[in-house]
Amino acid sequence: MKQIKKLSAQHRTRFSVRVLTLLMTMIIAGCGFHLRGDIELPALYERVFIVTKGSSNVGSSLAKALENVGSEIVSSPEASTSVITLLSSGTQRKALNVAGKAIREYELQLNISFVVQDNKGVQLAEQQTVSVIRNFQNDPNDVLGKDNEEKVIREEMMQPAIFQILRRLKALAQ
To answer: Domain 43-172 is in which class?
Structure first.
């Protein structure tokens, strides 16, 4: 008899978990939530020529991202369906929190400016600028470690900036 009660308690628990899981799935699906996936770019970006007038690091990161979403990077504007010109990119650092003579917190801001043209040379929109901002704590007693941390943060800021560029490219083509 105890085994039957024990078994039914286990079944009730499993049943409750399944019902709760099903209910949560229905609620999430009903509200329109979906995971962010790759961006599907229109045919305008089928073959892209990238012109870099600043950091080649940004150009190579953008080229990889475009290839990941199905675009082909071409070596001449004549072979392209669109031309992306990276006008400038740079990171600014400013103090956020100062205690006495020591800066306790910095803000880093990455800005990337670009323009997009179709294969006929017609500019699709005005110059676009994307920005990513990150804060980091500074420790005056660990200068070398914080310098390395700042370099890592600067590198990590590139990914969301490139994702913003891809979203802008999609919006410009519509």
So the answer is: alpha beta
